[in-house]
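Entry 14: structure prediction run for Diguanylate cyclase. Input pasted below.
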Amino acid sequence: AKRNGKNRVCFYDDSLSSMPIDRLRMETELCKAIATEQLVLYYQPRLELASGKIICLEALVRWNHPVQGIIPPAEFIPLAEETGLIVELGNWVLRSACEQKKRWQEAGIIGAQIAVNISPVQFQDLSFADNVKQIIEQSELVPDFLELEITESSIMHDMDKTVAILERLSAIGISISIDDFGIGYSSLNYLKHFPIQCLKIDRSFVKNIHNDQSDLAITHAIINLGHSLNLQIVAEGVEEVSQLEILKETKCTTIQGYLLSPPISADELEALFLSDRLV
Ligand code: C2E
Ligand code: CA
Ligand code: CA
Ligand code: CA
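Run finished. Output tokens:
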């Protein structure tokens, strides 16, 4: 609101170069969207290859804009990160995932874990671990249903601090996965210090495993690394049967991707569950 005054005159004037104004308008609208429940979570299933079961659902936020319709996260998460709104947005996502889990639990359906994406900015927030604990306590759920997906950029700032945060979360039963694994620039040193349970191989490697020797080699190496460290390994972005076949051969443990299902609404997920296509 404080930055509004000067810009308000040309707020709706399309003849001016409108970049900063669009940004400002979007920031204001996003702030309102969080407060008025315009955000919605979709869920993408993660399949365990050995059991054929859906063991986890990744919560992915969308903005159901009253005029523009569904806006994908790539169009508003960066803004939320720049403005600090991500902390509030992230808390909404966590609360909302907990509420959904609670409803499914009370209905006796969909026992899968839920994975929630955590932005590096949110992770650096001083009250991050407290927020997570508090939100779970309010939900009265047992915390072990929850997985937090963090990227390498979240953890490289201050190793000691990160270990402390992750250990606090682990101690209450929350699991941690490294998202987009392989595209960060960090050393692998952290893997032996951090309590993590899962590596998610970035889609950019999985995409060409069926026709690119280097991508196949890298994917295979990550899978082997994951096994040696006793971690779950998720291949992200699996779209083709030929990719799935290779991932089975290379002993990947779980997959996500359009081949199985895109992210879908909670209602669609329940329909799948009730039609017996989801365990
Ligand atoms: P991500 O965490 O790497 O999520 C995976 C993205 O890949 C999702 O896009 C998903 O819809 C998409 N995807 C899944 N399977 C396939 C496939 O087979 N092919 C292709 N081409 N894409 C696939 P989405 O939902 O648009 O999310 C994009 C990114 O936005 C996420 O990447 C994550 O970084 C961020 N994001 C989404 N929800 C949240 C959230 O609640 N909090 C935070 N901090 N970030 C979020
Ligand atoms: Ca993710
Ligand atoms: Ca990812
Ligand atoms: Ca990503």
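Notes: The first strand starts at residue 39 and ends at 48. Will compare against the previous run tomorrow.
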